[in-house]
Amino acid sequence: MLLARKVIGFYLEDIETPLGRFINLAITSLVLVSSAIFVIETYPISNNLKEILDGLDIIILSIFAVEYLLRFWCADSKVKYFFSLYSLLDLLAILPFFIGLVNISFIRILRWFRILRLVRFIQKKFLFERISSEDSIIFARILFTLFAIIFIYSGLIYQVEHPVNSDFNTFLDAVYFSVVTMTTVGFGDVTPVSQVGRLLAVLMIMTGVALIPWQVGNLIRQFIKASNQVETLCPTCQLSLHDADAQYCKICGTKLAKSL
């Protein structure tokens, strides 16, 4: 039993072996498919297609639930894992659906946070493994952060405003409003009418004012840092960027070959 727990735990975290890569890629794909289902359902679709999408979403949620239970079972410290960021994001994605007593509108609001499950794979560089330079990885992560925030805000504002506001007919309308609001352009052609919608608009503005300069600042700092580094591959840990005058790897301490 202990061996089985270690093997399963290894493959749930591994991205090097074929099986580990397949599992992580499958989970990533299911997160994206699940998010796409939410977007499609904001448009007028037939009842048959809606039933198919709802059934597919139930299957995906069931897989997420099994994955969470396996991760919890494999964790060395159950309490520590339960309160970890990844665990809370996973619970946020699956619990609302399986608690039947919760109001359905509350469930629909929470499901937009499911995109945050990709944070686990962002941190492992799983989605950016084909990007070689460190500054490109930082840039890709910044783009994902902006995409995730816009996606969540768009889903939330659509869920809140669509029943009472004709300006929010589809998910694209909500994306347009989120981008315009977060960038503080504020054309004024689309405005929320509910109290919760107005609160979300305020949060969008505050997020845009705080997040965008911070992310751009991170990107500029990374570019400056990269300009002062040279590409020297460490034979032990494979770190590719080091300071120009570095003689040893700053991660593992291996002596570096001199760059020509």
UniProtKB/TrEMBL annotation:
Keywords: Ion channel, Ion transport, Membrane, Potassium, Potassium channel, Potassium transport, Transmembrane, Transmembrane helix, Transport, Voltage-gated channel
Localization, UniProt: Membrane
UniProt main location, coarse: membrane
Transmembrane segments: 22-40, 52-73, 85-110, 138-158, 170-187, 199-216
Highest taxon listed in the record's lineage: Bacteria
Membrane topology according to the record: Multi-pass membrane protein
Domain Ion transport: 21-227
Any one Pfam family match given in the protein's UniProt record, by short name: Ion_trans
Claim: DNA damage is one of the keywords in the record: no
Positions in coiled-coil regions: none
Protein name in the entry: Ion transporter
Lineage of the organism: Bacteria, Bacillati, Cyanobacteriota, Cyanophyceae, Oscillatoriophycideae
